[in-house]
Amino acid sequence: QIKYMISRVRRKFGAPIIFTDKNASHVKDSYIECTSYQDKTFSIKMLEKDMGIQMVPKVREASTQTKWTYPKNAATQYFPRQLSNEEKEESLSSEKLKEFLTSVHFRMEIALQQNEIMNAFFDDWKALGDESRSGGKPDVYLKAYQSFTDLRYLKDRTISCVCWHPTIYGIIAVSARKQLSYEEQVNLSDKSLLQQSVILFWSFFDPIHPQLMLECPEDIYCFQFSPRDPNIIAGGCTNGQVVLWDISQHEEKLQNAKTVADGTKITAVNMVNASILNILQYIYMSVGKNGESSTEPPLVRYGAVSSIQYSHKKPVTDIHWLPDYFEDNQMDATFENRAEICVQLVTCSPGCSILFWDIPATKLPEQPSPEKVREEEISSMPPDVPATFKHLDLCWKPLIKINLHGSDTNTEYGPVRISLRELHYHYKTSEKVQSLNTLEVPTKESPYTEMSTPSSKYLKVLENISTDFFVGTEDGEIVYSDWKMEIDSDSAKPVTQKYTIHTETINTLQRSPFFKDIILSVGGRNFAIWKEGVTNGPILQSSCSAGKYTVGQWSLTRPGVFFIGRDDGNIDVWDLLKKTYEPSHFQNISESVITFISPWIASSKQHFLAVSNDLGVLHILEICPALSHPSKNEHDNVLDYFEREVKYLK
């Protein structure tokens, strides 16, 4: 049953109603809809009008006045209350005083004994335990000590290598290379030669002017002082050649850098507060109209450069001196070095090659007539070029060449960093640093001018010398192999082990100064710590960071501490005894990319860290005691940590 309710307005109540029928077939789908519509009765048009409201505080007048009184002079005198002689005698002879002295006599005696036994003003809480082992946080910082730059030779250039002088206090050398794009790095022949390539020597006592300059045939990517004779320097060029310098004639100038600073009376203490802009302005004012400095340092020409034909085909990215207690021959046999002079080098290059270089004796054997012509050309060298290595210039060839390839012989590896177990991995500068007051010049000749070549028949073959080495490639791979030549095999070396941990080029591959079998590798956005002999992988691997890691360096005094440079100008300080998942401290050093880190021990109380960037600025930082002084049993604790990590891998 369907009911319908029909309604109408009240005023129409009672009016007649007429209903009609409608055929349903006349309507589509036989359906009539009563659609809703808007009732205009309730639609009110809103009008807009402007209104303004302003709140103002009520203004009222108020005033205050201090009542001034007429000043008057007044004085007050205090004096102690004194007893008369009769009162003093009565007080001293009273029984009350005797009872008091008798009661406190024993306690006073104990207090006096304690004062004699111990220092009552000593703070035992501060001396309770070691700061580094306690729960509190010691002051960790890198204090700015000095800054160096040069508008002529370091402008728009990247500092590629930094080395401290092994024996002279406050002398540091830097090399720079041009900032090249990827296309320019591929085509190095298109590089502009308008800017001279040099290695600059700086001194703490004259931060404005370089003390010495080494002439370079090309931009220097890396260089090293000889551990046996610091006057001999070897460097690797961007064109693949190896260069030798002899600075023995300028050793006295470097030693006298404190007293003779070209008339400049700027001390290291004053330069701490000086800004880089002031230093640049001073340098600009000291440059003459012709663009030449009025205090131009001596220029040392290179003594020898390797043969282009037998050198690397790509830039020399790493160079090391071999130890002075052994040397190799062309048959890859290791003999004892009776002369105890570092006469061999090892270099690597992304051109898939590792070269061993030998510095032969100065006395050359009889040569054919074409070679004699070449020898006459060598003898006609300029007089300011040292004659130490003139017999090697442009005819120096590598002793051993190693080409790295995979087991399938089709895969080649481009080494950019190399680490040998037997290398001099750091200098013990704390024992060799020359006193600031000692300015005597040794009169002995350089040992390289007195070398002779003994016959290998009379030399002892060393069997316990490790020939294994680690290599970091430009693709981010860590390669572990052996450079000892096998019988009836060519110079190509198959890779024993390969690890892919880093996603970008390896920029650091360094052994720990305290553990010869512990290696730090840095590349891309992470770093890893390896233990030689463990084939399962690294014993410690960091997580990927937000920025790129550009360089790494072990601490020379603390076994568990190392420094990591970043592309945002920060330095991360890692302490393995505190945290292994994040750096224990980080500090901003520069506004640009950190390119090199080099520590140095000046004394037991003074430790420095040299940090360079890609803007040509070298920062010298003083390391705080918390980062330079090892804690109790730190060496054993770090060793235990490494051993535990090795057990976890197994």
From TrEMBL:
Indicate yes or no for the key word Cytoplasm: yes
- Report if keyword Disulfide bond is assigned: no
Question: Which Pfam families does this one have?
Answer: WD40 (PF00400)
Where is this protein localized, as stated in its record?
Answer: Cytoplasm
Q: Which InterPro entries match?
A: Dynein_IC, WD40/YVTN_repeat-like_dom_sf, WD40_repeat_dom_sf, WD40_rpt
Q: Alphabetically, which GO biological process terms does the record hold?
A: cilium movement involved in cell motility; inner dynein arm assembly
Main site of residence? cytoplasm
- One annotated GO molecular function: dynein light chain binding
Q: What GO CC annotations are associated with the protein?
A: inner dynein arm
- What are the alphabetically sorted keywords of the record? Cytoplasm, Repeat, WD repeat
Q: Can you name this protein?
A: WDR63 protein
Name the gene for this chain.
Wdr63
